[in-house]
Design a protein that fits this description.
Distance between the termini: 58 Å
Number of helices: 9
Structural class: alpha/beta
CATH superfamily: DHBP synthase
Order of helices and strands: EHHEEHEHHEHEHEHEEEH
Shape: globular
Radius of gyration: 17 Å
Strand order of the largest sheet: 1-8-2-3-7-4-6-5-9-10
Helix content: 25-40%
Length: about 220
């Protein structure tokens, strides 16, 4: 009886054993060749891809079984990189970037026409964060382009704080995994700055009260139904 072909298994690099620089350099090479990389994004592991590579972005949708039309957030190395993704930078976005980046706030910006519609979900908006997590920030710098930073889980399932708990489908789809051990912390706070006043879409690592203080708002704006 012929043996069934074995399922591809992603390479796992222990960041603490290999060293940050070497691990990130190898991960960046994989991303530049269209690969998918699991990496520590904040309190959860992320599934990364080159945001300017359409084929790699499609691989993210397939790996997560993500519904077409749902946007994907991206991570950037510097504040100015976020500005290049936006058709304009709302004053509220500038204030939050200056006060809280790198950190746990994702800003929804009006997308430039250079941003692929697949990333925006055809909304005309792009979610962007400059991460504080050292591995994620180093990976953004090494890639030199927007890094897709969606959570490393199947759509509709909980995010993952440990590599051992990754969905088998994500393990099978990834080309490389950067294991930084168990992660702690919260997912990012998401703020839509394309509307005035800005709307907190999700509270997370940065309290909503802090956001309101920076923006000079007294009350939180409720997202429209």
């Amino acid at each position: 009886m012929a043996e069934e072909p074995s399922q591809k298994s992603a390479r796992i690099l222990r960041v603490d054993e290999m060293g940050l620089a070497a691990a990130v350099e190898e991960a960046a090479r994989s991303l530049c060749s269209g690969g998918l990389v699991v990496f520590p994004a904040s309190g959860l592991y992320g599934l990364g891809a080159d945001g300017e590579n359409p084929a790699a972005v499609e691989r993210v949708f397939a790996a997560k079984a993500r519904t077409p039309g749902m946007p994907l957030l991206v991570l950037v190395a510097e504040n100015r990189d976020a500005e290049r993704l936006a058709s304009r930078l709302p004053p509220a976005a500038r204030a939050l970037m200056d006060a809280l980046w790198p950190g746990g706030v994702t800003l929804v910006l009006p997308a430039s026409n250079q941003v692929a519609p697949r990333l925006t979900g055809d909304t005309g908006k792009i979610g962007v964060r400059r991460p504080a997590q050292p591995v994620a920030l180093a990976l953004c710098r090494a890639l030199g382009r927007p890094l897709v930073g969606t959570s490393a889980n199947l759509s509709g399932r909980p995010g993952c704080r440990e590599i051992s708990r990754l969905d088998p489908e994500i393990l099978a789809a990834a080309d490389l995994i950067l294991d930084a051990g168990p992660l702690t912390g919260q997912a990012s706070t998401v703020v839509d700055t394309t509307v005035s006043p800005p709307v907190i879409l999700r509270e997370g690592a940065v309290p909503g009260k802090k956001i309101l203080e920076i923006l000079g708002q007294k009350e939180k704006t409720v997202p429209p139904l």
